[in-house]
Amino acid sequence: MTYAAITGWGKCMPPSVLTNADLATFLDTDDEWIVSRTGMRERRVSHVSAIEMSVVAARRALACAGLDAGDLDLIVYGSCSNDEQVPNSASGVQVRLGAARAAAMDVNTACTSFLYGLSSATALIRTGAVRNAVVIGVELILPYMDWSNRNVAVLFGDGCAAVVLQASEREEGVVAQKLGCIADARQTLRVRGMGCTYANRNVMLGDTQWDFDGQEIFKRAVHGMGQASADVLAAAGVAPADIDLVVPHQANLRIIESVVKRTGIPMERVMLTVQRYGNMSAATVPVALVEALEEGRVQPGALLLMPAFGAGLTLCSHLVRWGERVTPLATSDAELPPPDKTALELVNAIRAQKVGAQERSGPGLMAARLAETM
Ligand code: ACO
């Protein structure tokens, strides 16, 4: 039996930090509200494209695994942040890495994109079609956030991490998984302004508006991730006490607390990044995984549980058996160029451009188009 072992890992976090106080300079919000409702204190804002973050994270993951880009058979780009819809983003990563032999595909299931990508690459390795793959979880939400909407603008951040998977005869990597989608709740989180609905219809692409029913998503997320975790543990015959570390999607500290309480696992065995990075959508789980390794919280042979949910509402829970090695074989010197703006300056630059775009497209056009597509 062939398995897909995780042999390399690397993250790429943009250095610019956006604090709750920064958000309060242009939104009717405050640090106390954001911390008490979400657990978030700050998040990152990227000055480079999602592909650039992905290339740095992938180079670091490859060095960690002791592989060259030329060894890759597959690149999976898990994200809902794309520079353009066509061509796909994985091909942009491939050309910059120089991974000439690799196939390249995007997976977009919103916040679960990394984990759905992990499932896809694992399955391709198990069939023998692929031996070496890199799976990326990345999000660049800065350009399409509706920065005038305090319900969503305080929740998200940018970031990226990647893992290398290699065919192995040892029982490692994803050993059990539950994937699902609560499609009747797909309207609870929707970003209007991107996609074919808006193309060539006199609507300025990028003038986004977010439909977001936070309380409904909260309830569905707690129930969905809790059920998926219970299902995957039962299917694998694993007790909650056997889980060494939970590496969950990080949309809200209270959601994580509720899910692990339902699952019967104490918070001491949960990896948290939500305070420092907010919700980075597809990047949250891989970044938390990389930081857990950096902090020595993943021991050889550890059993990890990774529950997540995202727009759709997609959900999943993965059981991952770690291998013997918990330290990198080598490190990469890949780095992002330094930013020349603060996080708040980056956000304000987008806010200023959006106002300009609305003026250029004329008042009411977006509203009219939105009414048509309800
Ligand atoms: N600052 C101050 N006040 C705010 C803010 C803000 N940023 N946002 C909302 N409020 C106000 C609301 O307007 C409301 O005021 P009102 O009572 O006068 O109407 C009040 O705060 C309470 O709002 P609630 O929605 O009841 O707050 P709640 O405790 O439910 O927390 C939250 C809201 C944090 C969004 C929560 O519902 C949540 O985390 N939901 C799920 C998270 C989520 O959906 N994340 C993204 C999922 S997608 C993904 O990960 C893919």
Overview of the molecule:
The protein has 374 residues and is an alpha/beta fold. The protein has a single domain, classed as Thiolase/Chalcone synthase (Peroxisomal Thiolase, Chain A, domain 1, 3-Layer(aba) Sandwich), CATH 3.40.47.10. It is 35% helix and 21% strand. The termini are far apart. Bound molecules: acetyl coenzyme *A. Residues 29, 33-34, 37-38, 110-111, 150-151, 154-155, 189, 214-215, 217-218, 251-252, 279, 281, 310-311 line the site of acetyl coenzyme *A.
CATH superfamily placement? Thiolase/Chalcone synthase
Strand content: 15-25%
CATH fold category name: Peroxisomal Thiolase, Chain A, domain 1
Radius of gyration over all CA atoms, rounded: 20 Å
The span between the termini is 49 Å
What is the CATH-assigned architecture? 3-Layer(aba) Sandwich
- Describe the largest sheet: 5 strands, mixed
Q: How would you describe the shape? A: globular
* Poorly predicted tracts of residues: 370-374
Q: Which structural class fits the helix and strand makeup? A: alpha/beta
CATH class designation: Alpha Beta
Q: Please give the domain count.
A: 1
Query: Number of DSSP strands?
Result: 13
The portion of residues assigned to helices is: 25-40%
